[in-house]
Amino acid sequence: MNSEYRKAPRRRLDFRLEVIDSMTESQVGEILDISATGLKIHSNRPLGIDALFQWRFLMPDTAQPEIVECGIQVIWANPADAGHYTMGVRFIQIGQEMRERLRHWCRQIPL
């Protein structure tokens, strides 16, 4: 994995934030931590390494609900507790303005 993705400031979420698959309208999982380059999620189903998806989630901590639309690639997946998985995904398509907003948000209280 490109070291750029690991060096980006990350922020752990202390609240539930669901990820929705934009193509199927199904819930994929919940975000554990977030950066300007990707997400770590918890899911009840495994996703294949290198799989590509269109996802959406709400921008954390905004006064008005704002949807983040993104294209992602699954980078890694590990079994978690019974029947659950933890996965890392990177953004392969996300608006530059939204990426900058996520970067700013993550720098406020990094992981």
- What string gives the helices and strands in order? HEEEEEEEH
- Please tally the helical runs, counting DSSP H or I stretches of 4 or more residues: 2
Strand content: over 45%
**Widest sheet: strand order?**
2-3-4-7-6-5
User: Based on the structure given, which CATH architecture is correct?
Assistant: Beta Barrel
C-alpha end-to-end distance: 20 Å
In total, the number of strands is 7
The biggest beta sheet, please?
A: 6 strands, antiparallel, barrel
| CATH C-level label | Mainly Beta
The quaternary organization reads as single chain
- CATH superfamily, please? predicted glycosyltransferase like domains
- Give unreliable regions as ranges: none
Mean pLDDT: 89
Helix content: 10-25%
SSE diagram, text form:
Blueprint: H1 3-7, E1 10-12, E2 18-21, E3 27-35, E4 38-43, E5 52-58, E6 67-79, E7 85-93, H2 96-108
Antiparallel strand pairs: 1-3, 2-3, 2-5, 3-4, 4-7, 5-6, 6-7
